[in-house]
Design a protein that fits this description.
single chain, about 240 residues, alpha/beta, Rossmann fold, 6-stranded mixed sheet, 4-stranded antiparallel sheet, 7 helices, binds adenosine-5'-triphosphate, P-loop_NTPase, ATP-binding, nucleotide-binding, membrane
Length: about 240
């Protein structure tokens, strides 16, 4: 679960988020949308403890992040898998080694690593590519490696920041289906995206940000066509 309770984030004199209140219960799925600079990445960074709120409280899996010191950050990171737009894969390592990285960081060694990595690659349909270099893979395949890495230690929460940003509509739909599959087995999923046309095709909850404020929380199919994010594709 994720809960924001009167959360504000200010960078210097810039208000990135203001008085944000929402909750994703365990097993919920939502898209996070809004214009460039609306505060999507900042919101995700607060969940990952890359940033701290200026005011208010963020809860992840019922833990109040304000109460956790920096030494607890790895504990939260193990509970929150993250998928980035540009994959952030290591091109000098194999697919297997990229996916295994969070397990190594968590101190896991031996056979369990192989078992977990292969289970994860199997879920994203890339079991046959474990020895390949990510460089030899297509954009969609690279994104699936990024997803396998995000879920390899079975986090209860999965975040994604523009995970389909560089992909064509067909591949984007495939990637979204993977997120739905993880959600169906109980993972809480929050996906930041500009891609209103893609999320219009799915009747899922949408959190809409504008200028750091939550201006919409509901099913997009119920919304007037100008909301939320006003179809902006900038940024
Ligand atoms: N490290 C920072 N220092 C100063 N200002 C920042 C910082 N990070 C973000 N901001 C500002 O906070 C606001 C929200 O930015 P954020 O990156 O969260 O928006 P976003 O919705 O993710 O945008 P995009 O879709 O372009 O990635 C913007 O005005 C941005 O300029």
């Amino acid at each position: 679960m994720i809960r924001f309770d009167h959360v504000a984030k200010r960078y210097g004199s810039q208000d990135a988020l203001q008085n944000l209140n929402f909750e994703l219960a365990s097993g919920d799925f939502a898209f996070l949308t809004g214009h460039s600079g609306a505060g999507k990445s900042t919101l995700l960074k607060l969940v990952m403890m890359i940033e701290r709120p200026t005011r208010g409280q963020v809860f992840v899996q019922n833990q109040n992040l304000n109460r956790l010191g920096n030494r607890h950050i790895p504990l939260i990171r193990r509970q929150v898998g993250v998928v980035f737009q540009n994959h952030q894969l290591l091109f000098d390592r194999s697919v297997f080694e990229n996916v295994a990285l969070p397990l190594y960081i968590a101190g896991m060694r031996g056979r369990e690593v192989g078992r977990r990595v292969r289970a994860s690659l199997d879920k994203v349909g890339l079991l046959a590519k474990e020895k390949s270099s990510p460089m030899t893979l297509s954009g969609g395949e690279q994104q699936r490696v990024g997803i396998a890495r995000a879920v390899v230690n079975k986090p209860p929460v999965l975040l994604a920041d523009e995970p389909t940003g560089n992909l064509d509509p067909e591949l984007s739909a495939e990637i979204m289906n993977l997120f739905f599959e993880f959600n169906q087995v109980g993972v809480t999923v929050l996906i930041a995206t500009h891609d209103i046309s893609l999320i219009r095709t799915m009747s899922m909850r949408v959190l809409g940000l504008a200028d750091g404020q939550l201006v919409y929380d509901g099913l997009l199919e119920d919304a007037p066509r100008s909301k939320p994010g006003s179809e902006q594709t900038d940024g």
